[in-house]
């Protein structure tokens, strides 16, 4: 789906990201873990064409992307962040916004919004002001707003981190079921190893702007190299 080759991101002569090769398969779920400041968000922004690398090549569905990224290409992606950033209007209007900006027919907007409200179990909140929602409700609206656009690739930047455990567990399970049914290629940044284990098929460990290990999640965690083992060990210390 997306391939990076010899990607370098530099800011003020400082190397933020250096990736010789990274490939994201169609329909896969990929986790990205690493310490704070490792470059995880920069990698996500590079993959989603929200940030242009200083050098290197990016291909999307086999086509090399050069110069400015077309609106048509950008429409294949959706991003959900830790903060839902909902607008001061109804839940329905928040979910419908992207479709309205794309000038979709009113009937199509209504059908798609109602479908995704039902899918995320928030139909009963349709008329409620989005700023009056709980954290879990707001994140469900945030994800429905992303999925209603029918993205080929969904990027998630710690969308569950601010939620309590029961709310988080239910949302992750529901979202995983949705991703499996829609076969949406998904990238998840998370600091939570439990989220990564449950949600992702593949895992990239990013340290100091470099991918130190990448492969099937179970393989990476059961056969970590020295740098991955050290990182996971520090994570376990913080947790326990």
TrEMBL record:
Tagged with keyword Transport: yes
Keywords: ATP-binding, Nucleotide-binding, Transport
Entries under Pfam families matching the protein: ABC_tran
GO molecular function: ATP binding; ATP hydrolysis activity
Stored InterPro entries: AAA+_ATPase, ABC_SmlMolc_Importer, ABC_transporter-like_ATP-bd, ABC_transporter-like_CS, P-loop_NTPase
Keyword Transport: yes
SUPFAM superfamilies: P-loop containing nucleoside triphosphate hydrolases
ABC transporter domain mapped to chain residues: 2-233
The name this protein goes by in its record: ATP-binding cassette domain-containing protein
Species assigned in the record: Mesobacillus zeae
């Amino acid at each position: 789906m997306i391939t990076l080759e010899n990607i370098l991101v530099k800011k003020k002569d400082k190397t933020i990201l250096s990736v010789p090769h990274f490939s994201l398969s169609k329909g896969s779920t990929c986790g990205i873990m690493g310490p704070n400041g490792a470059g995880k968000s920069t990698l996500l922004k590079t993959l989603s064409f929200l940030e242009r690398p200083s050098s290197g090549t990016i291909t999307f569905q086999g086509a090399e992307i050069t110069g400015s990224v077309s609106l048509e290409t950008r429409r294949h992606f959706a991003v959900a962040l830790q903060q839902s950033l909902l607008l001061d209007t109804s839940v329905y209007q928040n979910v419908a916004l992207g479709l309205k900006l794309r000038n979709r027919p009113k009937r199509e907007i209504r059908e798609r919004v109602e479908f995704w409200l039902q899918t995320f179990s928030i139909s009963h909140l349709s008329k409620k002001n989005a700023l009056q929602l709980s954290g879990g409700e707001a994140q469900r609206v945030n994800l429905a707003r992303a999925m209603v656009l029918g993205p080929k690739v969904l990027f998630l930047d710690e969308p569950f981190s601010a939620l309590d455990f029961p709310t988080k567990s239910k949302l992750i399970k529901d979202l995983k079921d949705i991703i499996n049914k829609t076969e949406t290629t998904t990238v998840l940044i998370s600091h939570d190893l439990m989220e990564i284990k449950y949600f992702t098929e593949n895992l990239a460990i990013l340290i100091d702007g470099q991918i130190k290990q990448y492969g099937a999640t179970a393989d990476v965690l059961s056969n970590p190299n020295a740098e991955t083992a050290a990182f996971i060990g520090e994570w376990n210390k913080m947790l326990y």
